[in-house]
Amino acid sequence: MPDIVLATLNARYAHASLGLRCLRANLGALRERSAIREFIIGQKIEDIAEKILADRPRILGLGVYIWNIEESSKLVAQLKVLQPDLIVVLGGPEVSYETDAQRIAALADYVITGWGEISFAALAQQVLAGERPAARIIPGVQPPLPALAIPYGEYTDEDVQKRYLYVEASRGCPFKCEFCLSALDKTAWPFPLEPFLAELETLYARGARQFKFVDRTFNLKVDTSLAILDFFLARLDAAPDDPVFVHFELIPDHLPERLKTAIQRFPAGTLQFEIGIQTFDPEVQARISRRQDNARAAANLTWLRDNCNAHLHVDLIAGLPGEDVATFARGFDTLVALAPHEIQFGILKRLRGAPIARHTRDYGLQFNPEPPYNILATNVIDFATMQRLSRFARYWDLIANSGRYPRTLRRLLADSPFAHFLAFSDWLYARTGQTHALAQERLVQALYDYLGNDRALPAADVGADLALDYHGAGGRSRLPFEPADAQMPVPRSRKGDGATPARQARHLQRP
């Protein structure tokens, strides 16, 4: 039985926790006395507690994040009732700031704020030796990155075969965008490159084909970026029928020619870039300490869309201090015209410790006091309008980001994307009262009714596009508006191509 259990509640099974693996790899002599136990939000808390206690641990290290804080609090409360002498140690971004105000911190024995690898190992050593440090809140020690043990050997064969593998070539961020906890970093620190590439080679040799880089600024140091891209290109060149899928986060206004040349060499379905635009408004950018050359960012997005095969996922945030609906709409329409594969329409959140809170009084920021701490209203967007924007974001994800409706989406957005989709969003909510549990067939019928009736577009053309979209994404039913004698297409696979996830594969097959 392990003396130490490292656990967390992930958002999905496919998301293997890199943080837990970093902790275990750095336990030193205690590593063999530890085990990783991962769960998923939505599991019954009693079942999670039962599985943890079945290991009979003396220490539980629990990773706490914005998506699992509520369930983690319930879990710790139950564990303390069932086994009061279990030493519960919390870590993670959600408990690294404003710790004294949190119920879960009061329930636990210790909280490690910030970096955890060194401090957790030291605490575990003390506790297992019969010592109990007096301080409950322990600031995490930040060592030089070469001093840390590399965690990738902690990925199991099941992880390699079935889950995204999270990797990091660097930690930290040199930028100060106030909505992000990385604004508190002094800079970005790189891991030693050659050992990192050697670990990638080991993962690849074990069969890993999906890699998600968690670096905030992958393209900050171009020489390092090129070395990592060359690593994957070499494997694709050697085995073109054995593809990989690699996710990077890019700075939007920094794309040197050397990087463009390397990106162009990748085949479709292998690269995904997450690109944070967040806002196109220069005044809002200055207000939140975000440095961004909008013209260069737009030019780079255009180049990426026109000259490479990467899947482009671009972020915008609604509810930033001082940005009203009209300004956000202009930015949204600008981004739609640049034609990335996905636009992640996010609603501002007040992450614990993030500097965005300094604008609360001046800009009337009203945040949800409960997770996920989303903005409810500002001095220029009232609560009812923010609710409309939240529904817009949800429906946009279902319809646009899903990649299921490329032809229909072009009709729906026409010459004024934000206004037309907001009108549809309002109509759909009035009709269904739902933002979740909407089956594809129900969405298809709603789109047909809205475009044909409320927008008065030719029903035959709308129906033809919807049928092509629906069946092209794997839909198997005959739609009510399809002619009875229409030839039903051969059902398509719902899976992605090779290592490419299904949603990205749909986007890359756009008509």
Task: Produce the secondary structure layout.
Layout: E1 4-10, H1 18-25, E2 34-40, H2 45-54, E3 59-63, H3 69-82, E4 87-91, H4 103-107, E5 110-113, H5 117-128, E6 137-139, H6 157-162, E7 165-167, E8 170-172, E9 188-190, H7 193-205, E10 210-213, H8 222-238, E11 245-250, H9 257-263, E12 271-278, H10 282-287, H11 294-307, E13 311-318, H12 325-338, E14 342-347, E15 366-367, E16 375-377, H13 383-401, H14 406-413, H15 417-432, H16 440-454, H17 459-472, H18 502-508
Parallel strand pairs: 1-2, 1-3, 3-4, 4-5, 5-6, 7-10, 10-11, 11-12, 12-13, 13-14
Antiparallel strand pairs: 8-9, 15-16
Helix pairs in contact: 1-5, 2-3, 8-9, 13-15, 14-17, 16-17
- Global geometry: globular
Write the CATH homologous superfamily of the largest domain.
Answer: tm_1862 like domain
Report the end-to-end length measured between terminal Cα atoms: 56 Å
Structural class: alpha/beta
Strand content: 15-25%
CATH topology of the largest domain: pyruvate-formate lyase- activating enzyme
Uncertain segments:
none
Count of DSSP strands: 16
Helix content: 40-55%
Integer-rounded radius of gyration: 24 Å
Strand line-up across the major sheet: 2-1-3-4-5-6
Task: Describe this entry's structure for a reader.
The chain is of the alpha/beta class. It has 3 domains: about 5-145, Cobalamin-binding domain (Rossmann fold), CATH 3.40.50; about 165-365, Alpha-Beta Horseshoe (pyruvate-formate lyase- activating enzyme), CATH 3.80.30.20; about 380-510, no CATH class. It is built from 18 helices and 16 strands. The chain has a 6-stranded parallel β-sheet, with helices on both faces. Strands 7-10-11-12-13-14 form a 6-stranded parallel β-sheet. A two-stranded antiparallel ribbon has the order 8-9. Helix 8 runs parallel beside helix 9 and helix 13 packs across helix 15 (about 415-430). The radius of gyration is 24 Å and the shape is globular. The termini are far apart. The mean pLDDT is about 95.
